Each structure stands twice: as structure tokens, then as C-alpha cells.
Amino acid sequence: MPPPEAVSWLQSMQTSPMARNLLFLPSFLYGDLASRIYGTICDLIDQCSYDKLLESIDDIIIACKPLESSIDTVVTQDPALQSQPGPSDDLVTGQSHEWLMKQHAANYLGACLFQLYQGTVELLSQTLKANGSPKKDTALLCLRESNIERLKHPADRTLVSLALLLPVKAAIADRQGPNIPTWGHALKLLWPLGLISSSAHVHESQRAAANLGLLRIGHEAGIMQAVGR
Fold first, then answer.
1. What is the pTM of this model?
2. Which tens digit of pLDDT belongs to each residue from 4-33?
3. Which 3 state secondary structure label does DSSP give 95?
4. Are 37 and 64 in contact (CB under 8 A)?
């Protein structure tokens, strides 16, 4: 985990006129905050203390709200898709470099949110196991279901971007070797797709789409060939 002063440094950087439009700042800042909250969740689960779990749930939910809002602001500001690539655009995807940067940032931040929601679901599940109050159970179950539904939205956004970042035409055009022209995009998709693929809380269709995406990356990038598959 980054040092505690990283948050204040990133926040101060956001006030700089030169740095304000740099996309890595919100990605690093919100990704760092998400990792800290997720780390707190993991620590609480490891402690196995019902009282601490119950006391901390509201704090976790409250901490997630502004972070979710901030990330949504970033991921919904994507530039429009282009029908025809310009001379300085990415010729494989047909999109501007600005769009590609923002899409990868959106996928990264979406994956941070996804992991955070999954951690919250696990925290609530552990609390439910230890809880003996039926009235409290109802509230905890509602929170758990709410977070399960929440994590499906960033999963959808990532899966929609898959066809845009890894167009089938690029794979068809590159028949002479395993190095796909969208290799850089594929690498950035591995973590978000891996989270979706391994999740027990997404729709079956989402998990299947993530598995297919990972399998395609594996074959087209030569990874499966390298391991004898």
C-alpha cells in the first residue's frame, strides 16, 4: 500500500493548473483510496471479531459513497466514439488516443470499485454468519444484495469496452504470429477481466464473457501456445 502522504500529495496535485487535466491523477487518487478501504475490509475480516465487523459496516458504506460518486464522474466523461480514425489516431481500434486513455482509466477505476464491492459483500457475509438478531439480519441482507447489484455495473462497462479495445478485425488481420496489434490494450484488460471471471456474484453471462475475453487474449497473444495449450 502507498505511504499515507500519497493521498495528500495527489489531492494537492489536482489543484495544479498544469496537472489538473492529467488522467493519471484521478486514477491514482481514487485507486489509492479504494485500495485503502479494501485493505481495511480485509483486516476486519481477518480479525474475525463480530463486534468490530458490525461497528465498521456503516463506516465502510459511508467511505464508499463519495468514492463511488467521484469515480462515476470520471468514467462517464468518455469522449465520443469515432466512426473513422483520424491520421494520428490508433489505427487498430479506430479511436483517438484520448478516448483510449480514458477508457483504460475507466476500466481500471471500475475494477477498483468492483473489488471494493466484492470486499463489502464478503464483509457483510461474515457479519451475517456471526449475527444472532433476525431484525439486524434483514438490514445486512439488504446491504449485501445492494452491493452485489452494484458490482455488476462496472463489470458491464468493462465487458462492453472489450469489443472496442480488442476488435475482431484486428485479430483476423494479424495471421502471421501470436503478437496481436492490440497487445497493450489486452494487458490492461487482464486484471478487470480476471476479477469478473473469478467472481461468484456476477451474472453467469458476465462471467462467461470475461472467460471468453481472457481465453481470446491467451490464444492471440501466444500465452496458451507458450504453456502448451
1. 0.82
2. 666 676 666 666 666 556 667 778 888 988
3. strand
4. yes
What is the spatial distance between Cα 51 and Cα 28, in angstroms, rounded to a whole number? 33
d(CA 171, CA 163): 12
Q: Which of 18, 41, 172 is nearest to 119 (CA)?
A: 41
Cell 438478531 locates to 133
3-class SS at 227?
coil
What pLDDT, on a 0 to 100 scale, did the predictor assign at position 39? 93
Residue found by looking up cell 496481436 in the block = 180
Cell numbers found for residue 155: 463489470
Q: Is the pLDDT of residue 170 over 60?
A: no
Closest CA to 32 of 93, 116, 94, 103: 116
Euclidean distance between CA atoms 10 and 26, whole angstroms = 8
**Across the chain, what does the average pLDDT equal?**
81
Q: Which of 89, 109, 93 is nearest to 165 (CA)?
A: 93
End-to-end CA, the chain: 36
pLDDT of residue 130: 77
CA 142, distance to chain mean position in Å, is: 23
